[in-house]
Design goal:
single chain, alpha+beta, two-stranded antiparallel sheet, 2 helices, 14% strand, globular
Length: 56
């Protein structure tokens, strides 16, 4: 889930259902890795494409 005012969702309005779950999250100064959310590989690939489009 993308939480940005531009898409109509701010962090103060997000609840646990919007934030989701993860088995493991690793944060570094350059990257965030989220592992084990229960998604299929197809769903992961689709989300990666969405995030890349937001970055561009």
């Amino acid at each position: 889930t993308v939480i940005r005012d531009e898409v109509g969702l701010s962090l103060d309005k997000a609840d646990k259902a919007v934030l989701g779950t993860a088995a493991k999250v690793v944060l570094t100064k350059d990257a965030t890795t989220i592992v084990g959310d229960g998604s299929t590989q197809e769903a992961v690939n689709k989300r990666v494409a969405q995030i890349r489009n937001l970055i561009e």
